[in-house]
Amino acid sequence: MVEKKVIFLFPGQGAQYPGMGLDFAELSADAKKVFDTASQIMGRDMIALIRDSDAETLKQTDYSQPAICTASLAAMVFLKEQGTVPIACAGFSLGEYPALYCAGILSMEDCFRLTDARGRAMQAAIEKIKAGFMGDPGEAPGMAAVIGLDPGQVEALMAEWKNSGLKDLYAANFNSSKQTAVSGTAEALTEAETRFKEAGAKRFLRLQVAGPFHSPLMKEAAEAFAPELDKVQFRDPAIMIFSNVTGKQINSGEEAKALALRQIVEALRWTDEEAELAALQPEALLEAGPGKVLQGLWRDTGNAVPCYAAGTAAEILELKKNISQGNNLSNQETK
């Protein structure tokens, strides 16, 4: 993959699984240093956490966010050891923090400090939200996926409904041309389900997530996180990086810091980021971290440029082998 025009993508919460990234620590001293640094900064043994926790434990926000960040940075370090240096990077929600490190905006230590603080702030906000609905957990705010309407339609409909009085419903994730996630109160989601189906949505799928992410309903998490951001230096990017909030390139450290706070309470515009990445005309994109969610979202764009899994050492070494044999990345099967 040396001298190939490659973009790194970093996954978000939900991609985690027990054991993720540990193969990098076994094969690479530099990747092992990633785990050691994470453990030191966050005050817990990250190898033990990822190795010994079951899937349900790793779903907890204050565990999953630091764990995914650690596994993603280990994948990035291993990729670079194998000769792959990206021209640009982007991250999905939590994945923006490994991207901020990849772009040179954050030090590794500060990346872990902020990931840990963000996870704790969001978990505390979620627990407070749930505590307010102890009588009926089903009445707590949450998220749902609108399937079968394009993002522009979803956004236009929600603006119309807001003007006519529908409250507490927010666009949260513009994931692909086929799917947009919304956050809201239980009442707002129930009403939205009827309205979206009447507007032609094929499905309105309630998501099994911890809270109403990327919406103003997470305001308390943002308020708790803000003082932690103020403690950290954000440098200007060394390579191109793109924002969830704007969908556009981030041009300065100051801009990156402001967007990091906004990202907690504003919609994630992944489809806009994908369009910006496509305009760079890369030869391939690599999902550096656990899971394959971002590969699926990239396929939904219809772009012929492949996006490959790069979340395990075996996947990365196989890509390297194919390139060393003279195979073109674009001719390899997307996994």
Write up what this structure looks like.
There is one protein chain. This protein has helices at 22-27, 29-42, 46-52, 55-58, 61-81, 96-102, 108-131, 151-163, 186-198, 219-230, 253-265, 270-279, 293-299, 313-324; strands at residues 6-10, 88-91, 142-147, 169-176, 179-184, 203-207, 240-241, 284-287, 307-309. The protein folds into 2 domains: 6-129 and 217-331, Malonyl-Coenzyme A Acyl Carrier Protein, domain 2 (3-Layer(aba) Sandwich), CATH 3.40.366.10; 141-210, Malonyl-CoA ACP transacylase, ACP-binding (Alpha-Beta Plaits, 2-Layer Sandwich). Helix 2 (29-42) runs antiparallel to helix 5 (61-81) and helix 2 crosses helix 7. Strands 7-2-1-8-9 form a 5-stranded parallel β-sheet, sandwiched between helices. It is built from 14 helices and 9 strands. It starts with 5 loop residues before the first strand and ends in an 11-residue tail after the last helix. The protein has 335 residues and is an alpha/beta fold. The model is unreliable at 329-335 (pLDDT under 50). Strand 8, helix 13 (293-299) and strand 9 form a beta-alpha-beta unit.
* CATH fold naming of the largest domain: Malonyl-Coenzyme A Acyl Carrier Protein, domain 2
Radius of gyration: 19 Å
Q: Can you write the helix and strand succession as a string? A: EHHHHHEHHEHEEHEHEHHEHEH
Proportion of residues in helical segments: 40-55%
> How many separate structural domains?
2
Instruction: Describe the global form.
Output: globular
Number of strands: 9
- Per CATH, the class of the largest domain reads Alpha Beta
Number of helices: 14
Output the CATH homologous superfamily of the largest domain: Malonyl-Coenzyme A Acyl Carrier Protein, domain 2
| Alpha carbon gap, first and last residue | 17 Å
Low-confidence stretches: 329-335
